[in-house]
Amino acid sequence: MPLLDIDSHGIQAVADVGQLLGDLLRHAGDVKPTTTIEPPLERSDFGDLQSRLSEVFPKSNADTAQPTRSHQWAVLETAVRDTFGRLLAESSIDAPDFVRVWNLLDLLCILEDLELCDPALLFWLIEELLDSQTISGCRKIFDYLESRRQKITSKHFASKKLVILRTCNELLRRLSRARDTAFCGRVFIFLFQSFPLGDKSSVNLRGEFHVENVTTYDQDAAKRNGATTDQMEIDGQPATATPNEGKQVTLKHTSSDAKGQGPP
Questions:
Q1: pTM, 2 dp
Q2: According to the UniProt entry, which residue ranges have a biased composition of type Polar residues (predicted)?
């Protein structure tokens, strides 16, 4: 596999992290010789990854550890995005060497478990990856998501749930409910399995309702279908029609929250 040319952006730490990512991806290719999504890479495949990454960053003179973590996360994200962009430019999703993208995503999942990168970085890249592919390519990406769902949603879910929700909603907008019914179902099942049952993302907190929905009932439907009525007919006297017979009744669904006032 060709070497990745990482743009340093004028920052030596970005170039060093990019070089380390290239070494880790080459090592991942040796550990996982297949060109498929399975099997996933594990933390044990990379040895002491935390110490290798800490050697890249220079010593910080900051008084607190928080600025150091923010700086390291920013440097790592810049290097990862450069690597990710070059991998996408070099191979299509149907090519065998696209396995390097799956390996990079697995590597990010390991870095997230070690709290060495932003928890939402993995789904940021998956969101961009879905936007860059056709529906056929999105199915393969979703194969990866389904196979790693339990692993990538078990930790730091609060930091990534909005990205997951936005990514799945954007994908559903692209899909046809008539032609891509099975794929839509896969997306919904992924959401249902990822989000807890009491999550507020499924609650109508504002109380907004669709007040323009109008349902029309035809009172003559039973007679046209040949159904009998409960009215008793007397010999020599024609049956009288009910006041609403032959008329249409329109019901408009409204809510007190829609206009800001209660019923009269």
A1: 0.68
A2: 239-253
Between the alpha carbon of residue 169 and those of residues 39, 141, 162, 163, 195, the distances in Å are: 28, 15, 10, 10, 14
Q: Which of 120, 159, 132, 117 is nearest to 20 (CA)?
A: 117
Per-residue model confidence as pLDDT tens digits over 171-202:
999 999 889 999 999 999 999 888 877 777 65
Residue 190 contacts by C-beta under 8 Å, 6 or more apart in sequence? 142, 145, 146, 149, 168
- With a CB cutoff of 8 Å and minimum separation 6, the contacts of 248 are 216, 217, 218, 219
DSSP string, 117-153: S-TTHHHHHHHHHHHTS-HHHHHHHHHHHHHHHHHHS
* Percent of the chain residues past pLDDT 90, beyond the cut: 22
Pairing of strands 248-252, 214-218: antiparallel
Closest C-alpha to 104, from 84, 79, 120, 88: 84
